[in-house]
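Student: Please help interpret what follows.
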Amino acid sequence: MMRTPLLTSFLYFFFIVASPISVWSLPTSDHDLRQAISQTAEILATQNSNIVLEFNSIENCWLFRRGSIRIKIPENIAYKLGQPLAKKGINKILISLHDTESKTLALKLKKALFQIIIEKNADVNAILMANDIKSFSRFKSVVLIPAYGDAEGRPLNKALIEPAKGVESLAQQMNRTIPDIDARVYNPNLTSINEMIDFLKHEKPDLIGMNVFETVLERSTEITGRLHLELPESTLIWGGPTISHAPFANILESLPIHGISTDNGQSLIKIAKQLQPSNPEVNQAILDKTDGIITSTSITSLKPITETPGDKSSLAKVQLTDIPYDEPDVTHRTSYHLPSESNGPIPHGKVGNTPLFINEDLLGNFCAGTCVFCSLCLNTKKHKSPEDVFNAIKEQFRPGYHDSIFFGAPDFFHDEKFVKDLTELIKNDSLLREVPKRATGRVTISDYEILKKMSEAGFETVSFGIESFHDPSLKAMGKRTSVALNLATIEKTFEAGMYPTIYHILLPLEATVESSVRDIELITKMIKKGAAVVTVPYLNVFWGTPLSHHKSVETVVYSFPGMKKPLEVAKHVSYADPQLVPIREKMLRILDKSLNDPKYPAYAKNSLSTYGLLTYRSFLEAVSELHPDYFQDNIRRILEVDEAIYSVLKQEATTTPSIKYPELDMLEKEIKIRRTLLLNSCLKKVLHKLIDTANKLKT
């Protein structure tokens, strides 16, 4: 039977156009429309945040979003709400949906939406306000930018990018506490600097906050100059966890920023509340008077900052649903490649995904180390009594949510009697005793019985700032420890029934090729025994630390368009062993490729121990390429590192037993083959030596 053009058109519409669109996505009848309105009201009422209804030029449609996340509302509903706005020349409105109980809010929203859509009342803002729902056609826009790139100024590997939790939390805090603000995060690591600039030029935010680390300062200064040239009306502020140690005068003299936030972003919230759009002079006056903000005016009366103030507890409030893990958002139009914390294997050395964090307010911040690279504020707070700390843990611990406890003092062992008394209290509590725990501390423990008591109280690991197994390096870095003490404490930790987490700097001060190779051999054996490792490839220079004035530090000068004048900063550490500079550069190039090697399961990118081992592997490969005399011995060393990588990944895989990882089977087979080949090679060498010896004896 031949199909007529009319029949063909009907079949095309029915099967291709109509069938994928459900009643939910495109309500047609009055009943369907009313049902969709009710469902929309219920969804919006649960947002507990400011949301924006806008015509999105990229998506070419009206949509609702919360920050950068698109809210799944029927397009037809968003369209019907957007049409009366478009007729008035309005392309977006902000609706404040926090501080109201969700059921009450749903009823108000349902009534307002009925009046706008069913009764065709064209004044959207007036209807929302009449139903006691705050709505703004003019509101403040804030964009927060995480630090971009790596320490060498290169873009990050897309597969390794993680959300900047502190920045995300700050944006969420603004959207959930300030009624007339639209705050979102633009992470240029997900796209590019150019795409971010284009986005910001289109949005024209009133306030731009940049998260800045001294280790990635080059790209931060470049971005700052470009933002000033492209968006001169926007208020631009720097911030970051170590910014309170920065050379404020130099930065403000060199960079076109309006201020520096020194209190973990809490001053940004104060500014956002008072901000006046398109009024730079008034906004600068607000900055000059705001506590926690350093400006060119306020720096003249600045008191010394001894620590970074501010409420860090907000970081725990970050909601994973506000971060684009599962699908692209409407800001970047992409998502993070790493799994969220709520799924995927638990990384090696991590005792839980949602720990209760016990900080220095309870545990104190005393530390006997004098590390030249440390930027922490130390020795200003004493610990509370063991009973007070124990009671605080009992009060704050939420069974069913917290799956572990992290004791985050710089040195948990500073007062050994305190640790003994506290662990005894925990051990005698049937609930807390069973909760996995970790602590951080120095290796300078005088009474190793403490480690046994900790193990009995449910501690699984202790993180030690070992940094190096090379005495000249330990002395140069001000560690006030020794290789012998490092090894003894690690062994005692194993004996106590816990495993050590080793913080390690592969290329510290006074490092040599030989000392770094020896460190790798030692740590690889410890990992096979059960230790975890957190590795830094080389020593970073942080603001305000003794290292920033060290004789071995080299400075660099950054100069980009838009800056007031060039900025000179300390960056690199020069090495006594000149071989290490080219080895370091080659190691970083090899490491970049290794981190994206498909022979490792995807979750390997989220494993700190695997990162450390891949760093060691890359170093050994770089040494072999540049110094062939190391080649034969490094074949064995690289194989041992690969065996350690396999053991770590295998252990992590056991935390998700329902998921199979075929890469692990392939990796195991490869290691067995290479081990056999290495053994055969060794046997051949032994055989040749025996033959040579026999021939010499005959002669």
